[in-house]
Write a structure and sequence with these properties.
CATH class of the largest domain in chain A: Alpha Beta
Radius of gyration of chain A: 21 Å
Largest interface: A-B, 33 and 33 residues
Number of domains of chain A: 2
Order of helices and strands of chain A: EEEHEEEEHEHEHEHEHEHHEHEHEE
Largest sheet of chain A: 8 strands, mixed
Oligomer: homodimer
CATH topology of the largest domain in chain A: Quinone Oxidoreductase, Chain A, domain 1
Strand content of chain A: 15-25%
Number of helices of chain A: 10
Chain lengths: 363, 363
């Protein structure tokens, strides 16, 4: 193992955000990375992702995951290349997935590093369709909503990392898909992905647009709602569910930035009238299915049935905080990816576009 | 078949209530009952029940059941004795269950009449623990919430017809049971039925009392919530659910009388964090299980493991409307029963008490 010291920059949490995160809640610091102890490897990070759940872990709300400690570097799913290792199973040069993002270089315990099969794909795919958001969509569509051929499925935030995958998986399962997204460009993209009817949620009441979409399909109502939004989307979906509908609760981005709780849907009694099931889920309960998922999903990616949708945020590690804020604001289409090193960027598979602090989203 | 004409009184719907039902929405009329045509039998009604769902069918809201037609007699589950019949399978004297209540005598199509095994029990038992509310509780506990030994189960409106049965069934299934009810007498009754901790929902915030109950049990949270109330009960229950909790949505009596929709729980995101399932159900989807239910439930009744809880409303058919209003107002403990004929009343199995327009509830 090489004994040289490596200089690295990393983002440290300074204060817990309440409501919208502020620049003063974090700090980018530089520090030399020590030589790895036995049981650790050193990794040069290539790409990391920013995700909505990080907002909750910063805030330290009573939640499904531990809060990030104040004074420590933030965490993020990251793909990197091993640059220092004594472990024969993790040789220098191996592509690995770990959770020590928000920094250029990092030390990672051997047990928290997973060696990736490169598949000749963009490393960022392991953070999107082959990673957490892709498997989350797969669990939601197959295990929670149990989509079957002929179902009418509504996916909200369908240009997002999870939503864009959920739309494509619902089509693979033989459903008719209604989707909502947040800009004309996103609507076009989601239509390209195969959704049958797509609307912009800024173009009028969700209920009105949802009823219009059902009319376009000649459908009586929804069999499945894959919810990434909560709030008015959830209330509108409940309004038009069919008997025995299934609502997979995956995320509620509408409330992540709210400091005070918003009232919920006023029509939950329809869950009784329609004998509907609403179920929340987290990926962590389904890790036993990872091999099955990876086998199916890598096949669909290779055959073109599932296309990754990424937005790359520029600026390297220094741009990561703006990338996170941009993702929360809806600037990202598909998975929000932050290339941390030169060879992590420039993929030909970027469907979503690129974004930098100086420019608008490019598609 | 006897050809004489029988005089009968019956309640006819005159207007659709909006909000609380008014006396002017209905009218009690007298009319002679004609001789039954072939395919019909004449029944002398003994006891009928009044139930919350009738409010929805009177109002004609978009709902899970057809509205009652204006100008027609109301419907209600009723036990009666056949007094005129050409059908050998339905001889005069047979005890039958049908849906043509709110009247003293009635003609019933042969196909809508079910002959009952008397079991030596009060006929009203076929309207409570052996009838719709009993089977509803059984479906909710066994099929929807899937209660297993050791579960911590919360039942709201636990002195009601469904709730009082759900409490007893959850105990039979090996759960620890927390229950809420609406008066000190009801709290005592539910404790007598075997609930481990019972509180009066008037005695403070539901959340506060629920947390206290969990503390008394040394339990971390709820595994199951059997919801008969909605509103603040539902929000409070969600606040304290355990991972993988199940919420069986059976009724929302808190909103049946509201003309405008009330906001729903503001904490549905906890269904994601706790990977919880919330599911509405109606008995009609589970009628295939009726034989299994009747076999189990009649055994539990005979062995004393399940006790019927009835409140008998006086006044005969003329008192039925007040009985319905009283039931909606929470005056009934257990199943609200209206004896329509002399031999339908006076059961020794009345645990809930009796109620007449002239008196307070007696227990």
């Amino acid at each position: 193992m090489s004994a040289e010291t490596v200089d690295s920059r990393e983002w440290v949490l300074r204060a817990r955000p309440s409501g919208r995160p502020l620049d003063s809640d974090v700090e980018l610091i530089a520090r030399p990375l020590p030589t790895p102890e036995p049981g650790m490897v050193r990794v040069h990070n290539l790409v990391m992702s920013v995700e909505p759940y990080m907002r909750g872990r910063m805030g330290g709300e009573s939640n499904y995951a531990e809060p990030y400690p104040i004074g420590e570097p933030l965490r993020a799913p990251t793909v990197g290349r091993v640059t220092g290792s004594d472990d024969p199973a993790l040789p220098a040069g191996a592509l690995v997935l770990h959770d020590f993002g928000w920094r250029e270089h990092t030390l990672v315990p051997v047990g928290e590093c997973r060696v990736l099969d490169e598949h000749g794909m963009d490393p960022a795919v392991h953070l999107s369709v082959l990673g957490i958001p892709g498997m989350t969509a797969w669990i939601g569509i197959d295990r929670i909503a149990r989509v079957v051929p002929g179902d009418v499925v509504f996916v909200s935030s369908a240009a997002g990392a999870v939503g864009s995958t959920a739309v494509q998986l619902a089509k693979i399962r033989g459903a008719r898909v209604i989707a909502s997204a947040g800009s004309p460009a996103k609507v076009d993209l989601v239509r390209d992905l195969g959704a049958d009817v797509v609307f912009d949620h800024h173009d009028g009441s969700i209920t009105h647009q949802l009823r219009g979409a059902l009319e376009d399909l000649g459908a009586s109502g929804l069999d499945v709602y894959f919810d990434n939004v909560g709030g008015d989307h959830l209330e509108a979906a409940i309004r038009v569910i069919n008997d025995h509908a299934r609502i997979a609760l995956c995320g509620m981005i509408s409330i992540y930035n709210e400091a005070t709780p918003q009232p919920g849907p006023s029509n939950l009694i329809k869950l009784i009238w329609r004998r509907a099931r609403m179920e929340g889920f987290l990926l962590r309960d389904h890790l036993d299915a990872r091999d099955e998922f990876e086998e199916q999903m890598s096949g669909w990616i290779r055959s073109g049935l599932v296309r990754p949708v990424h937005t790359e945020f520029g600026g390297g590690v220094a741009g990561a905080w703006d990338a996170f804020a941009g993702m929360l604001d809806g600037s990202a289409t598909g998975k929000a990816i932050v290339p941390l090193a030169a060879d992590g960027a420039g993929s030909s598979q970027v469907l979503g576009g690129t974004y930098s602090p100086d420019k608008e989203v490019q598609r």
